[in-house]
Design a protein that fits this description.
Blueprint (H helix, E strand, L loop, with lengths): L9 E7 L18 H17 L6 E12 L8 E12 L2 E10 L2 E14 H17 L4
Antiparallel strand pairs: 1-3, 2-5, 3-4, 4-5
């Protein structure tokens, strides 16, 4: 992890909202941006913010998200995720995000990520795969 990863770092990303990112269970006339896609955009923006301050061989994984979906965004609009680093504690990175569309704020979130060593993670996943295969879970 580079020393440049510090509180108050910020990143802004804009995403188009497409029909396939909207809910469909209430009918065509009530399609709005789905919370699951909002969550994905928050995590993507936060990961990219952290990743730009990591050393080669490092990445980060999401561990916790607290999200408030405050308002509807229609297909054809865009959302903007404004992410910022709140604090660091060892490998733990705490972030916050505000989500807006052209009409105002539509969401807010707190997100915890952990910086990982990809080689160690690969080894852990390999061991887990072996256990899952032995248990007949794969």
């Amino acid at each position: 992890m580079k020393p440049s990863l510090a509180p108050d770092l910020k990143s802004v990303r804009r995403f188009d909202v497409t029909v396939d990112q909207t809910i469909d269970f209430m009918g065509e006339d009530l399609r709005v941006f789905a919370t699951t896609f909002m969550l994905a955009r928050i995590e993507q923006t936060c990961r990219d913010l952290v990743l730009s301050h990591l050393d080669e061989g490092e990445d980060s994984v999401g561990a916790r998200v607290e999200i408030d979906h405050l308002g509807p965004t229609l297909a054809g609009m865009w959302i903007e995720v404004n992410a910022r680093v709140l604090s660091l504690d060892g490998q733990r990175v705490e972030l916050a995000a505000d989500i807006c569309d052209a009409l105002g704020q539509v969401g807010r979130a707190r997100h915890t990520r952990f910086v990982i060593d990809k080689t160690r993670q690969r080894e852990r996943l390999s061991a887990r795969r072996a256990k899952a295969e032995a248990a007949g879970a794969l």
